[in-house]
Please model this.
Amino acid sequence: MKKEDDMAKQDTSRPARAAGAPDPSRRSLLRGTLAAGGAVAAGLMAGRARAAAPVTSVTPDPLITEVQDWNRYLGGGVDTAPYGLPSEFEADVVRRNVAWLTADTTSSINFTPLHALDGIITPNGVCFERHHGGAAEIDPAQHRLMIHGLVDKPLVFTMADLMRFPRVNRVFFLECAANSGMEWRGSQLNGCQFTHGMIHNVMYTGVPLRLLLEEAGVKPSGKWILAEGADASGMTRSIPLEKALDDCLVAFKMNGEALRAEQGYPVRLVVPGWEGNMWVKWLRRLEVGDKPWQQREETSKYTDLLPTGKARRFTWMMDVKSVITNPSPQAPLSHGKGRTVVTGLAWSGAGTIKRVDVTLDGGRNWHAARIDGPSLDKSLHRFYYEFDWDGSELLLQSRAMDEMGYVQPTKNALRTSRGENSIYHNNGIQTWRVQADGVTENVEVS
Ligand code: MTE
Ligand code: CO
Model:
């Protein structure tokens, strides 16, 4: 299995592009190249105030005037799918991996198809997966969770024991620290599924970790928690007690049903707003200690090597970030000019999103996007920007600001402050270039 260090790798064969999309060769466009084009004008004229051209047709259409087969014959029975699946016409909306990223045929990372989703909730079947030792299959009757270390009363919980504590429902995003890691040195992957798809956002049902720690009784010297998984990777991370007592959950349900095996069934840790790596799946052990354990996953991995040779450590929070999901390379602007909807996602480990701006011309002019749907703490937010496309080339970007006032940086600003050795915590602004024919590709502006 490959590790997330490989996220810094550059593709040489480039096999991961979407069907029908152009070759995603690295491209650095000068903003000036667009200045003479019509995109700037499109940006200035855009706006909800202006009446958009009609999108409907008055030509007689047999699909509405004639009786169709599905209208004429009896449909399928209710017993054909005891567990429902999406329509066969949605067969493309699946998790995908990047072939050159993993050496094994069985990938240890796949990506959420963000370009095809809407709203803020990620359906369970398409939540990206990241396993360091494969996905464990655990019988809940055989699963145990232990709390020990600096506690008054070491405890071992069965799943049935956990169900007897008060539980809560919370929506949170989980973003792998390595999300967008392959884009540090330049635009590379042709699709937001691959550039930004190591994220999902679901409603968890679980017990506040605080209640379980209170049951065991944390000694005054207890300042840190070590969380350990029951899978072959034995994933372990140190978490400050303050965070553990604040909003962490020991969760057993996602979107109302049991966790999927690949998401840590029967129980996982939820560490809102912080690196996905800390959200230990198949959670089996919580040790209370007085200092961090300096595990592999917080020393040689999940640290950010700076140009000075020093590394940033314990960079837990996932900073404010956004991406336009549609149009994007896997979802080109196929309808031609006129009424156009741009949509995307924004999130921040620091809280809610207060504002998202969209540019059509690589950052010359910005327009306020419309955030729609619930605005929840440390959750994905959905935004839209509607405008009249004049059919000329676009350089689309989104830029989010969170409730703390943090603004998403450009990729160049990030490189200036952190160098190019980093893998993790790339929250830079993403650019999609939309050609006149609607074909969309991953580029950078300078
Ligand atoms: N927990 C265990 N036990 N084993 C793992 O390999 N991977 C971590 C984290 N928790 C991992 C784990 C990483 S790096 C991430 S990004 C998230 O789980 C991924 O969660 P997901 O598979 O639900 O998307
Ligand atoms: Co990860």
Notes: The chain has nine helices and 22 strands. The pocket of MTE (ligand 1) is lined by residues 127-133, 174, 176, 200, 229, 231, 233, 235, 262-263, 276-277, 279-282 (CB under 6 Å). The radius of gyration is 23 Å. Residues 4 and 153 are 37 Å apart (CA to CA).
